[in-house]
Amino acid sequence: xxxxxxxxxxxxxxxxxxxxxxxxxxxxxxxxxxxxxxxxxxxxxxxxxxxxxxxxxxxxxxxxxxxxxxxxxxxxxxxxxxxxxxxxxxxxxxxxxxxxxxxxxxxxxxxxxxxxxxxxxxxxxxxxxxxxxxxxxxxxxxxxxxxxxxxxxxxxxxxxxxxxxxxxxxxxxxxxxxxxxxxxxxxxxxxxxxxxxxxxxxxxxxxxxxxxxxxxxxxxxxxxxxxxxxxxxxxxxxxxxxx
Length: 243
Prior knowledge:
With 243 residues, this protein is of the alpha+beta class. The protein has two domains: 26-98, Alpha-Beta Plaits; 110-242, Sulfite Reductase Hemoprotein, domain 1 (2-Layer Sandwich), CATH 3.30.413. Helices cover 38% and strands 19% of the residues. The protein has eight helices and nine strands. The chain has helices at residues 3-24, 56-69, 91-98, 118-121, 129-140, 202-217, 225-232, 234-242, and strands at residues 35-36, 42-45, 72-75, 81-87, 110-115, 149-154, 168-172, 176-181, 193-199. It has a five-stranded mixed β-sheet with strand order 5-6-7-8-9. It has a four-stranded antiparallel β-sheet with strand order 1-2-4-3, covered by helices on one side. A hairpin with a 3-residue loop joins strand 7 (168-172) and strand 8 (176-181). The chain is globular. The mean pLDDT is 94.
């Protein structure tokens, strides 16, 4: 091989290595709500659908975009619709055509507020979980925090919103609401502790949750809320929040 050929070959190797390194360094794009997929090339996004409540026009738009770009569609456990298989250069265009806000599927923030049908639709509901849940969603969805946080609002003790494994859970009782703290699923699951039972007063529930979130934001710790509750014990945590 001539010197010139060797130099050309080495230059090609460098280019290929640089491309390989660039591909291997790809990661989630939090600012675009884009989650890198298993192929390390394409991304998934999830428009924000508060409480999983939507309309047919929105569903048609999602389907039209999925058809146009050849995307897979998945219903998620966080009551969202995920679009899978988007090329990086198409992310901005897809979001523009959807004309919807991203769901906070990634990042250190309030990821989701899961809401059951409650008294609006369910024959078992004893409190209006949709009303309370949508207020929580409007206040907290995507709020930046020391770590990720999930919330669940259930309209009865059956707890279809899985409130017992949420960082902050609310479960309806015959007399009002039960507020739970410190639950999570994941590799180290933890059942939430009962913080307090209150009357059927949404404003009171919102005020207490605001104290929890504010305390957590100022905790100076970058761990899930359940870790802090576990370390402190629920009695001390209750004292911190309720006095």
